[in-house]
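Structure ticket #2291
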Amino acid sequence: MTHHHDGDPQAHHHDSGLAELLDLDAEALGTYLDDVTAWVARYATDAPRLVVDIGAGTGTGSLALARRFPGADVVAIDAASSMLQRVVASARSRGLDDRVRAVQADLDIRWPDVTGVDIAWASSSVHELADPGRLFRDVFAALTPGGLLAVIEMDAQPSFLGADPASAGLESRLHEAMAQAGWNAHQDWRPLLEAAGFEIKAEHRFTIDVNGAAPATLRYAGSYLRNARSALDQQLSTDDAAALDHLLADGNLEVLLGSSDATTRVVRSAWAARRPA
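Resolution: structure written out below.
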């Protein structure tokens, strides 16, 4: 399992393109992670000592959690060793390697030997599991009394091309193909969280709008659309595949977005669930 900040093509968990996409997602969306971790901190226990990032991917969430909770150690859990290597390297480059460690585990098989958890964070990872209810029960058992589980999911695929009438139809069909392939499909987690014993302390929707022509957004859009093009190769019509190839050719995406007042919007839902003290 790999972490998706947020909206990853599920069929491409372990390739370098996904790793690039995860990092660019965090870069393009600016202070989003700081906003969400601040929201989580409102419901967390005072002075948490152990924080777990479930499905850590490249570790952007792990590092944001380490910044938010400077007195805590952070455990990044992922099934992909290549992703965890990036977590370790990123933590080292920021002087956080003494507080951030990686644990490889396939959470469809078992929860690793990680207990005494004060905060568990799962961003765009729960929907990938075969049995999310079992994960919630495992996390409940691993949390300290009063510990918090934060679950974050993307509500819709990001829109980059909607401001351009000629490209809006292509993006709409691309999103339809993504939906049919089950990308980021998730449910309201409240019933499963409550069934696992959690008390829901809060739910919140985060809306992030960024300048579509900003350099970071352009890089994110290009990476996102390249991953989509590769993953949906068999689902796209010949005309749509050719149009997307043209859009992704050198400079074309920059010209399209740079000449418009496009705004990229991402909406994410979050649940704060507490293990009763």
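Closing remark: Residues 215-231 form the longest helix (17 residues).
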